[in-house]
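Student:
Attend to each token:
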Amino acid sequence: MAKEIERKFLVKGNWHRDDEYPYKIKQGYLNTDPDRTVRIRIEYDPKQIWAWLTVKGRNQGAVRNEYEVVLGDHITAEEMIDTTCLHVIHKTRTVQYHHGLKWEIDEFHGNNQGLIVAEIELESEDQELILPDWIGEEVTTDPRYYNSSLAIVPYTMWKYDETV
């Protein structure tokens, strides 16, 4: 069974793009049920356009089942997103390496503008991390920060309670 072990953090302070190729991502959701999230993702890499169909199971902390199938035709993937997905998000991804580990930093656009999240995929749940200085609060287990949740209730629409 394919497992994804991923932790998410808010980005703070003055981080900068080290990556030579920040790229755009468009994700459309066919199903946002936490037990079986189904999405189509298109990555507009400067050198090539990639498309995937991904099915993810419910999170158990930082772990969940994940299955990905490469879609050979990004034009069909665009059409699928535009005609069958009710919820779509857009973001720019930058890759940075810190102490030999690959961090993916997502800057969200549209109704999620202003949100920047760093993700790291790990080999095991207890893998030690040395956090970069631009890493803020961990949000791995906060479902508001799941991309599927952000597609439905965008970051700019959250209600903040200053007393919490």
Notes: The chain has one domain: 3-157.
